[in-house]
Amino acid sequence: MDKGIVIRLRKTFEDYAREVDGVEFWFARDLQNMLDYDEWRNFANVIEKAKTACKNSGQEINDHFVEVNKMVDIGSGTKREIQDIVLTRYACYLVAQNGDPRKEEIAFAQSYFAVQTRKQELIEQRIAFIERLNARKKLVASETELSKLIYERGVDDDGFARIRSKGDKVLFGGFTTLQMKTKLKVPRKKPLADLRNNADVRGLLTKRGIKPEELPPEEDIQRLERRVKKDEKRIADELKDKRLNYKD
User: Which DSSP state fits 125?
Assistant: First the structure.
């Protein structure tokens, strides 16, 4: 994600932050706009998923999601009452976790609300982690769909492996999947994509002077996913402790 976008989104999110008695919160209607959701009903579905995640994490939903009604201007000096929800930082984080991963705003929010410190470099680092995990999930979904189509046409596992290897050969300048695994010291049974750090096609990379076959492997995607989940649990525990201390 471009650094300029990160800076712009960070300012927007901080502008909408509110605080009462030392407790930081956001209104769901504001978050809806910040996360680029046009319709409230679609965003409300995301919030419901976030509530479920909150409950499953052992947190009290009412501690993080508080329904309120407020008056808004509808023009010509007229106001009407609408439903809104007060969200804690943790609630916002869960909403972002259950949002559309294709939106840049979601990728930013997942990190912004997770990182307790406001240090820019930590936010950008976590965004890179989240974006890589989301990219891998999209690749898995695409390959699953492709394999279904191929198997329907009578191609077996060995045939699918050969097709995939040909694709890797194009990407890696003639190196086969097995050769690249040997070069990068990747176990034979582990998908090469789990440790690959390129996302563009070879043509775009080579125009920039980058050769995919010469790039070092990234951190194992499964290890990265475990680290992110461990970090999420730590965040939940810290917020729980903070809330208990506040009540005391």
Answer: H
Residue with tokens 């076959």: 213
> In angstroms, what CA-CA distances link 235 with 39, 158, 231?
30, 44, 6
CA atoms of 12 and 15, how far apart (whole Å): 5
Torsion sign, CA atoms 28, 31, 33, 39: negative
CA distances from 23 to 35, 47, 236, 242, 248 (A): 22, 20, 16, 10, 14
Please give the pLDDT value at position 192.
Answer: 54
Q: Which residue has the higher pLDDT, 168 or 181?
A: 181
Angstrom CA distances, 186 to 29, 139, 193, 200, stand at 46, 19, 10, 21
What is the structure's pLDDT at 127? 74
pLDDT of the residue at 85: 95
- The 3-state DSSP class for residue 233 equals helix
